[in-house]
Amino acid sequence: MDKKKFNNLIQQPAKNIVNISEDEIDNLLVLFPYCEIVHVIALLKSKQKNSINFNNILNTTSTYSSNRLNLYNLINKKIEQKVAKKHHDFTTWLNSSSKKNKEIIKNSIEDNDFLTTETLAEIYVEQGHYKRAIQTYEILSLKYPKKSSFFANRINEIKNK
Questions:
Q1: Is 111 within 8 Å of 140 (Cβ atoms)?
Q2: CB 110 within 8 A of CB 125
Q3: Are the beta carbons of 34 and 48 closer than 8 angstroms?
Q4: So where are the chain's domains?
Q5: Residue 90 vs residue 74, higher pLDDT
Q6: Count of other CB atoms within 10 angstroms of residue 64
Q7: Against a cut of 0.85, is the pTM above it?
Q8: 91-139: per-residue pLDDT in tens?
């Protein structure tokens, strides 16, 4: 295969796959065993010929594929049309979002008792959020009753600030 034919094949594999033989593809696979596009070309050719080895070639090609979604779309001839994205400000998006999105947003800003740690309480103290630090130490004293006296002392220290 000459360079011009090879370059045309690489630039538009779906269009130029008709002009190439299976032997030429096999030779390319020997020359460039790790080249993703050559494997894609072999896959397209096997799909075109309705080859019995299609699944094996697909497995091999997917191994070398950097983006399996693109490979899936290529095989299934799905052409994605890029739609121009509309730019909205945050409040417009928030008002137009579904009930589920609003619930997710609401849950994301609520405190999570599972993530309550001494480090978080200390960060609140350092940032001057004393009320939140006290709440955190109160939760920790319930979670870890053996350390409740330590947490009570920390709460008193924070109240004295």
A1: no
A2: no
A3: no
A4: 3-75, 113-159
A5: 74
A6: 16
A7: no
A8: 776 666 666 667 776 776 666 666 788 999 999 999 999 999 999 999 9
